[in-house]
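Table S2 (text version). Query chain:
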Amino acid sequence: MNESLPDVVINVVDASNLERHLYLTCQLIDKDVPMVIALNMYDSLQKSGDLFDYQSLAKMIGIPIVPTNGRTSHGIKSLFSPVIKVYEETEPLVRHIHINYGEVLENGIRNVRDAIRANVQVSHNQSTRYLAIQLLERDCETENYILQIPSNEVILEVRDKNIAEIEGLLNTDCETAFADARYGFISGALRETYEPNK
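Corresponding structure-token output:
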């Protein structure tokens, strides 16, 4: 878990399967990873008659989006400028957002995050919010990382208590609750920016 984050991630999103590929984007947003989205196969989406205002989505999520085509290399060179600007922190579009998971999950995230902050000296490139989400989703790697910390019992106790509360209130397991919230966020974003050809 102490791995260093990449300087910039080029997140390849397939325009023909936006919902699925934007799910990974949500996870990268949670991790607070600097990124540029390569919107692959955008030309195919246009040919189908679908309308996708990717520039509005880029502004909404604070991440530059560049249409590309991996087969023809179209748009690949256009990725360089935003990647450099993101790396140099000069890209005006970039802003860090939090995906709002709703009151119940956000309360759990806040409680676990506070327990982590009170008991762990995390490196500056680690998001305590992301660690909290991963713990609530029962991620094994994150749990193993926390188990190496002297005061891990306190953190895991807070995590277990909040999982029980979340699952009691939402009547579903935590992993499903987070997945549903991510898909809800994606669905809302696409409702405003994507119009399929009927």
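Notes on Table S2: The CA atoms of residues 44 and 192 lie 20 Å apart. The beta strands are 9-14, 35-40, 51-52, 65-68, 194-195.
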